[in-house]
Design a protein that fits this description.
CATH superfamily of the largest domain in chain A: MFS general substrate transporter like domains
Largest sheet of chain A: none
CATH architecture of the largest domain in chain A: Up-down Bundle
Helix content of chain B: 10-25%
Number of strands of chain B: 25
Strand content of chain B: 35-45%
Oligomer: heterodimer
Membrane topology (chain A): Multi-pass membrane protein
Number of strands of chain A: 0
Largest interface: A-B, 89 and 83 residues
Order of helices and strands of chain B: HEEEEEEEEEEEEEEEEEEEEEEEEE
Radius of gyration of chain B: 26 Å
Keywords (chain B): Membrane, Transmembrane, Transmembrane helix
InterPro entries (chain B): 6-blade_b-propeller_TolB-like (IPR011042)
CATH class of the largest domain in chain A: Mainly Alpha
Structural class of chain A: mainly alpha
Structural class of chain B: mainly beta
Radius of gyration of chain A: 23 Å
Protein name (chain B): WD40 repeat protein
Order of helices and strands of chain A: HHHHHHHHHHHHHHHHHHH
Mean pLDDT of chain B: 88
Low-confidence stretches of chain A: 1-35, 255-267, 464-471
CATH topology of the largest domain in chain A: Growth Hormone, Chain: A
Distance between the termini of chain A: 32 Å
Keywords (chain A): Membrane, Transmembrane, Transmembrane helix
């Protein structure tokens, strides 16, 4: 047995050892041992999640520092136009989405989310080395593409790791803490980059060196500090060892006792696409798709604000920093709220905040107040939707398909949002910015109650095995 | 618990030791990376400080701004880097008069100068500034992104193009914002993207359209570029500030620039083979009467600038040096393409001819 325990060291051991307390169908009352400690542990975000947050923080500092100055670098240092840069950006949007599902799928098949994520993070770190030597636009373009592929690969396995490390009861909060750290990096990166350029006007290489350093530390933190969680194996162990511990027959009407060791090495229940046929999963993807179709890029909100008043124009480069700051502050509380009120409910009603942001951008009152309100609402919208979607998905589907399911849900959202931005662009030119925003806000205010009805009564809350009935 | 706890605890101990080793390794890695990054940053800071305070190696003269001249952005390394400067029209490679104004793009008619600049800081912002003949600021307005093109018309109109760039993975690409202001800072056009676009007489509204590179005909009309990747067109359009329309003239014409005699447009022609991801721009000239295009392939390099006419027979444009990309030169090319390009103004960018 010791070999198996060693395969999931550190925090990974926690769910297994605490399993008797957390397994829902337990007919007996909870063991009386250390109930306070158990509750405290359940309320705390596991250190693996915090470490993964730090990994994302470092990686986002690295990538956003470069992303923020890349257009300037291409124009000022390489003497090319940003039109050329725009080509690069457009090329990779679709590819990134597909890679996401693939990353989740590989992590599910191998039951090694940490190492699949490490490949993704490593790929992005390698592009920073490339940036130190790249001179032409084709070279930079391919590095940008590679970076996005890396991001696509790592996202789903990373979220699967969070789901595996977190207590199912505070999954939303765990994702919230992770997203807060992630967003802090995204906000800090550009500020750091511009601070370097302020001190060293041609400090491009310095930014790339800092970016490389942050990326290397990110990969290092992942490889060295994050335990090699095997979610599928752990689930198998939870189901079987706990029954054994409880002196029950290993299986209830199943045959998994016989090939025990073989099943273990294969990592428990095998991967299957059949999760996509589950009613709840389809419902979730439907809701995510519909709401995504009404989520036009923040770019449009910023442009509308900027078209309306000088305040927003002056601070245009900083609008997204404001949004990110709010997102960062609210991500953990919003995740906690989702754990309490129901993740699907918070995800759906979070889109009402987005409608509020549209209204602020469309309203005929110019000035700082509406601009700031719009940013706060946008940030709150991200806080109540981004991490919550992953929490909701990972609680809903079996462990064996978690990575793929998270990747699929994110891809559905991303593709729907891309379509929304394209469609909204047509509307923007056809009806003008104010009317277009009112229409989008109106459509959202219709869609939100409909989606809320679709997910009513905890329809998207996990079936028994993953959630504590007393929670 | 049961008897199989003992081996499990043994495993825990081993795992614990491994965790400690890994933490130590991470601490070492952090120290190495931090030390390396800080060392590099500090040495670069010192180098930059030294370079910035070093005097620019250029011949300086007075009184050039009072006679016909070419105003430009000086890119000679050193303390004058980025300053607006001028050379005499009859001695382009001669000494320059350097002003105290720092610009990314500059355009001038001798009495009024438009200067687009990046205000660097932890919060980097961008602005357009209008200056009078004594280099005093008369108007400013904020720009939403990186300054790209500036054009001043004799009728007191200022066209600016800024790149509004995506800042995050989730954002879609980039867009340009091109506006026309009066020299007193009042907005004449709003974003030119909002003008009605008429392609071959039909109203079209591609979502991804971008407008840039304005060149003025008179107080009401101008030429510019409208690009839509979804439609696969890069149109030359003729704009009308009163009707608020953009009417397509020809496809495949980018960043036009009207000749002083008003008969031709110099522009960037994309000579890259069809389907290639990046463009290769070659200077070209369009005859407005016959719509005949002459591609000036005497210039083989990739030219990414809004061309300026030195006179009715000569084009000027900026190119970065291969070996020192922060330094650019302004090159001249005969408008009929009969001779190869040569350096007109060394260490310069964004030329603007003042007669």
């Amino acid at each position: 047995m010791s070999g198996l325990v060693r395969a999931v060291p550190g925090d990974a051991g926690q769910p297994i050892r605490t399993a008797p307390e957390a397994t829902p169908q337990t007919p007996e009352p909870r063991p009386p041992r250390r109930p306070d400690a158990a509750r405290r542990r359940a309320g705390r975000v596991p250190s693996t999640v915090v470490t993964l947050g730090v990994v994302s923080f470092l990686t986002d500092v690295s990538s956003e520092a470069v992303t923020a100055i890349l257009p300037l670098y291409v124009t000022a240092a390489l003497g090319l136009s940003v039109v050329a840069y725009g080509v690069v950006d457009g090329l990779v949007q679709g590819a990134g989405a597909l890679v996401r599902v693939a990353g989740g799928w590989v992590s599910d098949r191998t039951d090694r989310p940490k190492w699949v994520a490490a490949v993704g993070y490593g790929l992005s770190a390698l592009t920073r080395v490339g940036l130190l030597f790249a001179t032409g636009l084709p070279a930079i373009a391919s590095l940008v593409v590679t970076d996005r592929v890396g991001k696509g690969v790592r996202t789903a396995p990373r979220d699967a790791l969070i789901a595996a490390a977190a207590n199912p009861r505070n999954l939303g909060r765990s994702f919230g803490v992770h997203r807060a750290l992630d967003t802090a990096g995204a906000a800090l990166g550009p500020l750091l980059a511009f601070a370097v350029l302020w001190a060293i006007p041609d400090g491009w290489t310095t930014i790339f060196v800092i970016s490389l350093g942050a990326a290397v530390l990110g990969v290092g933190a992942l490889v060295l500090l994050v335990p090699d969680l095997r979610p599928r194996q752990a689930a198998w162990l939870r189901a079987h060892r706990t029954r054994q511990d409880r002196g029950l027959p290993k299986c209830k009407g199943c045959t998994c006792d016989a090939p025990g060791a073989a099943a273990l090495t294969a990592g428990g229940r095998p991967f299957s696409w059949s999760f996509l046929r589950g009613g709840a999963t389809v419902r979730l993807l439907l809701v995510a798709g519909v709401l995504g179709l009404l989520t036009v890029g923040d770019g449009f909100v910023y442009l509308a604000l900027q078209d309306r008043d000088g305040f927003a124009t002056q601070w245009f480069p900083l609008l997204y920093v404001g949004t990110n700051a709010v997102y960062m502050l609210l991500a953990a509380p919003a995740g906690r709220l989702a754990d309490r009120l129901g993740r699907a409910r918070v995800l759906v009603w979070g889109h009402a905040l987005l409608a509020g942001a549209y209204v602020c951008a469309a309203a005929p009152f110019s000035g700082a107040a509406t601009t700031v309100t719009a940013l706060v609402l946008l940030g709150a919208f991200y806080a109540t939707t981004d991490g919550v979607l992953s929490a909701l998905t990972s609680a809903l589907v079996p462990t064996a398909v978690r990575g793929t399911a998270i990747g699929t849900a994110q891809t559905v959202t991303a593709v729907a949002r891309m379509a929304a931005s394209a469609g909204f662009g047509v509307l923007w030119y056809a009806t003008g910015r104010v009317d277009a925003l009112w229409i989008a806000a109106g459509a959202l205010l219709v869609a939100v109650p409909v989606c809320a009805y679709l997910v009513r009564g905890g329809r998207l809350e996990p079936a028994a095995p993953a959630e504590e009935t007393t929670a | 618990m049961s008897a199989d706890d003992a081996p499990a605890r043994l495993g825990d101990d081993r795992a614990q030791r491994s965790v400690v080793r890994r933490r130590a390794a991470f601490a070492v890695l952090t120290l190495v990376v931090l030390a390396g990054t800080v060392w590099y940053g500090v040495s670069e800071l010192q180098r930059a400080r030294a370079e910035q305070s070093a005097p620019s190696q250029v011949d300086v003269a007075d009184g050039i701004l009072d006679a016909p001249h070419v105003l430009f952005r000086s890119t000679a390394p050193g303390d004058l880097y980025g300053h607006a400067a001028a050379v005499a029209l009859d001695d382009l490679s001669g000494p320059r008069e350097v002003t105290s104004v720092v610009c990314d793009r500059v355009s001038s008619d001798g009495t009024t100068t438009v200067c687009l600049r990046t205000d660097r800081g932890v919060v980097t912002t961008y602005e357009a500034e209008v200056l009078d003949a004594a280099w005093r600021t008369t108007a400013t307005w904020p720009l939403p992104g990186i300054p790209s093109r500036a054009r001043l018309s004799p009728d007191g109109l200022v066209a600016t193009t800024a790149f509004v760039t995506g800042h995050s993975y989730s954002q879609t690409g980039f867009s340009t914002e091109t506006t026309v202001h009066r020299v007193d800072g009042t907005d004449v056009s709003g974003n030119l993207e909002d003008f009605t676009l008429l392609a071959d007489g039909e109203r079209v509204a591609p979502v991804d359209r971008n407008v840039w590179g304005v060149t003025f005909v008179d107080a009401r009309h101008f030429y510019a570029t409208v690009q839509s990747r979804s439609l696969g067109h890069t149109w030359l359009v003729r704009g009308d500030l009163e009707e608020r329309t953009l009417v397509t003239v020809l496809d495949g014409v980018e960043c036009p620039s009207l000749s002083p005699d008003g008969t031709r447009l110099a522009f960037k022609h994309d000579a890259a083979p069809a389907g290639s991801a990046t463009a290769h721009w070659t200077p070209a000239v369009l005859d407005l009467a016959s719509l005949e295009v002459t591609v000036l392939d005497a210039e083989e390099r990739n030219v990414d600038d809004q061309i300026t006419w030195l006179d009715d027979a000569t084009l000027l444009y900026g190119l970065a040096r291969d070996d020192e990309p922060e330094t650019t030169d302004v090159w001249s090319l005969p408008a009929d393409g009969t001779a190869p390009p040569e350096v007109a103004i060394p260490q310069a960018w964004s030329p603007s001819v003042v007669r």
